[in-house]
Recover the amino acids of this structure.
């Protein structure tokens, strides 16, 4: 299951009709797969553009050469809020946290965020600085800082496509995460120990669920594997 599948399934389930992607020239890559029959208002905001000519063939509603999404978010804040905002940031802590906070501010009450790269499989792809090849960076850290213990939200993370965090802007069942929060903050100043703690506790920190559990949770049909005779 891809991030675009989650976006489309949530849209169909909850009747979402407006979608915004916040990404960089090197992230996202699912915008063309968003169901336009579901999302009548579908927009994409890209920050950190270095080469304008390289993006001439891409479908971008808002673009800026600034290294952060702050300017775009401020401009969008005067417009109607979105039902769903997808965030695929530059994976530093600063960019990730700013994008998540900004996206949440553009979301209507009852809407949902989908955040990519929240479940890095190993410490190599979770390096804090840009590395060649697959790179989730520390988006997982910013995501956990945002959701853990926050009132007025419901969140879970689907264990697919490097981890897709789903955050609903509405309260859910109470979870006692006080000890988890304490230990998470205690690890915050050491990249190595923080990732180790995350690795040992990712199920609880992320509220991690499988693709099948996601489908069950959202009342979606399970995918039936083909029979041996098919």
């Amino acid at each position: 299951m891809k991030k675009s599948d989650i976006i489309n399934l949530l849209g169909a389930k909850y009747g979402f009709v407006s979608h915004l992607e916040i990404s960089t020239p090197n992230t996202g890559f699912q915008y063309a797969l968003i169901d336009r029959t579901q999302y009548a208002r579908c927009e994409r905001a890209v920050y950190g553009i270095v080469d304008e000519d390289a993006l001439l063939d891409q479908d971008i509603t808002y673009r800026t050469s600034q290294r952060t999404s702050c300017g775009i978010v401020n401009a969008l804040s005067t417009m109607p809020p979105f039902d769903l905002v997808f965030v695929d940031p530059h994976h530093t802590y600063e960019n990730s946290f700013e994008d998540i906070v900004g996206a949440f501010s553009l979301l209507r009450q009852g809407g949902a965020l989908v955040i990519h790269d929240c479940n890095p499989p190993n410490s190599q792809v979770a390096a804090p600085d840009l590395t060649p090849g697959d790179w989730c960076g520390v988006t997982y850290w910013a995501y956990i800082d945002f959701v853990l213990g926050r009132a007025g939200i419901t969140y879970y993370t689907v264990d697919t496509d490097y981890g897709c965090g789903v955050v609903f802007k509405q309260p859910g069942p109470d979870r006692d995460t006080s000890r988890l929060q304490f230990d998470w903050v205690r690890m915050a100043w050491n990249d190595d120990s923080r990732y180790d703690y995350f690795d040992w506790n990712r199920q609880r920190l992320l509220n991690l669920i499988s693709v099948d559990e996601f489908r069950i949770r959202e009342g979606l049909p399970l995918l039936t594997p083909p029979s041996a005779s098919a």
About this structure: Strands lie at 18-23, 41-47, 62-64, 82-88, 107-116, 154-158, 164-168, 208-209. Residues 3-216 form a domain with the Rossmann fold fold (CATH 3.40.50.150). The radius of gyration is 17 Å. The chain is about 30% helix and 20% strand.
